[in-house]
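Task: sequence design from structure.
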């Protein structure tokens, strides 16, 4: 059974069962969906959301939930978050100590026992930001689910998802912790880890976020 009890084969959201962030660290690749039963949403209290490109990794009381724009083409094909070539997401988690070592993208369910969640503003499309239909963004649905889960921090991976969720233009956003909370959580905007955004990459806000998440 995978951490959080999501149905990888059906593309469904994960369960909202409580997660301990003080227990043992999950092994890379632990619980990647072998032996899953279908239709776990109601049984485990989770959100059953057919049509999602990637399952939402969400549970009550997480330290931080990272919110991206949408799954890239490689991520959609592999069924794993931040799997595109050159994406810095998994290396920066390891470098900042948010994960105990470098995880492969397919091991993303192992983030839940570490108190880390994952989601996207646009969960039903995939591709580069320039190819996405803004009408497919669902910031209100995301906000409602996050308010129910009550993470300590919501961190946007890039300005595009932050702008969509916060209703503010990208050019007016600054990296780091924002002055106002969002969805009942401390709100951070971070430089995108996408390989397409390499010219704007700066690890410093990620290090600051990691320090805040460790408390």
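Answer:
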């Amino acid at each position: 059974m995978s951490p959080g009890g999501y149905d990888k084969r059906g593309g469904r959201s994960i369960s909202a069962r409580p997660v301990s962030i003080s227990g043992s660290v999950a092994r890379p690749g632990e619980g990647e969906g072998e032996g899953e039963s279908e239709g776990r949403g109601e049984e485990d209290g989770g959100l059953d959301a057919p049509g999602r490109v990637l399952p939402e990794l969400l549970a009550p009381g997480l330290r931080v939930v990272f919110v991206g724009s949408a799954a890239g083409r490689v991520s959609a094909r592999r069924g794993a978050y931040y799997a595109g070539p050159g994406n810095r997401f998994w290396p920066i988690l390891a470098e900042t100590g948010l994960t105990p070592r470098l995880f492969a993208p397919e091991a993303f369910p192992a983030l839940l026992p570490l108190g880390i969640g994952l989601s996207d503003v646009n969960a039903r499309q995939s591709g580069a930001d320039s190819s996405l239909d803004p009408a497919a963004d669902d910031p209100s649905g995301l906000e409602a689910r996050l308010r129910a889960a009550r993470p300590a921090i919501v961190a946007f991976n890039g300005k595009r998802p932050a702008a969509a969720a916060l209703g503010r233009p990208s050019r007016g956003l600054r990296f780091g912790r924002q002055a106002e909370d969002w969805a009942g959580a401390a709100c951070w905007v971070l430089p995108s880890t996408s390989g397409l955004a390499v010219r704007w990459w700066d690890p410093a806000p990620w290090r600051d976020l990691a320090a805040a998440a460790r408390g």
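Confidence is low (pLDDT under 50) at residues 1-48.
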